Amino acid sequence: MKRKISLLLAMILILSTLTNVALAVDSMPVSAEAEIIKAEDKVMELSIEEAVKLAIESDRGMWKIDKTIGELQDARRLGSSAKELYEQLTEAPMIPGSSDLNYFNLILSKNDYYSKTAELKTKELQKGREQMLKGIEINTISLYYKTLVAEKTIGINQAKLDKANEQLRVINLKFNNGSETKAGVLRGEMAVQEAKTELNTAMDDLNIVKLDLLNLLNLPFDTSIVLTDTELTYVPTVELNLDAALEKAKTERLEIISAQNNLELQKIETHAYKAYYTSNLWQNKVAVKKLEDAELNVPQAYKDVELDVRKTYLNLVKAERALVNMDKTVELSKEAARINKLLYENGMATSLEVLEADTNLAQAEIGRYQLLVAYNLSKLMFDNSNLMGSPVSAEE
């Protein structure tokens, strides 16, 4: 009877404890509840589209250009003079002391120089904003792809380690029955250790590149992210149109737009200088020289853009060729690994040949995925060559 009473009291104590805990959780402030689920909250599924959105929202360059465009629009709405708009855009008078040259300013105003400057520079700002957005997108996608490569490398190295462990097991069995040497066992153990090292290195590389991605997206460094866009596609370059890309770039690239705008404004400015200063004065001569330079800059801009688009296309073709060749290498490496394993099982190959074949296969698979990423990035650059120039390499 005493034992039953003791058990009953124990049950009552347990129930009361559980009730108190439940009440405590119910009455817990929101901040405390957030602490409990903090770890879960930091697990984030991240698509490329979401990553790009976060990168744009946190980019200071975008804040600055949006602020500049907003201030200019506000100034125009408030009825600021054309000259004030011009000075706001250029952040300085045209030449030292030019604000005192009333007649000169009158000539510029009569030729719509200030209003034209405000109009053209606003368009350039808008195009620059578009270019900046695309640059952020490409940079984010590049880092996203690098993270995918790091994850893929871990998977391949894990498979390599599994194969090395299995091969070591077989080697030990053969050694125990006298059909394998001690040297073979040591090679197998070394292969396992090498695979472990490469797997650990791949994990470290993933942690590092994830930190870079989190920093770009302005997320806490302890945020756990899961990338959801893991499928990379391959679109042959035969389906791409270089001529269409060239024509589009020649009408939309900021370099060409800026060169044309500068020429239009320089014509007005040079006309004003020539009207205000005689031909023997240095101001007149400098203005004429600036006009000559502006005229030469337009065809040069077209040439530079065409060169850039053509190089972007050739880089894409180069990346495609490397990817196709690597596909063949992976195929051959798989077959070599399969054959060497069969030969070893029948005593016709050494354990070293098997281990080397597995290593070559792992390297080929990692290389293939890296080249697939490189191809996709090259295609992204070509697809947007109407806006963005190709990155300048260190060699250039």
Q: What can be said about the biggest beta sheet?
A: 2 strands, parallel
Extended strand count: 2
Class inferred from helices and paired strands: mainly alpha
**Continuous helix count:** 13
- Based on CA atoms alone, the radius of gyration comes out at 34 Å
Task: Return the CATH topology.
Answer: Outer membrane efflux proteins (OEP)
Task: Detail the poorly predicted runs.
Answer: 1-40, 96-100, 392-396
Straight-line distance between termini: 94 Å
- Name given to the CATH homologous superfamily: Outer membrane efflux proteins (OEP)
Give a summary of the structure in a few sentences:
The chain has 396 residues and is an all-alpha fold. The chain has helices at residues 2-26, 30-36, 38-41, 48-58, 60-77, 82-90, 102-110, 113-176, 182-216, 242-252, 254-276, 282-345, 351-383; strands at residues 43-46, 224-227. It has 13 helices and two strands, in the order αααβααααααβαααα.
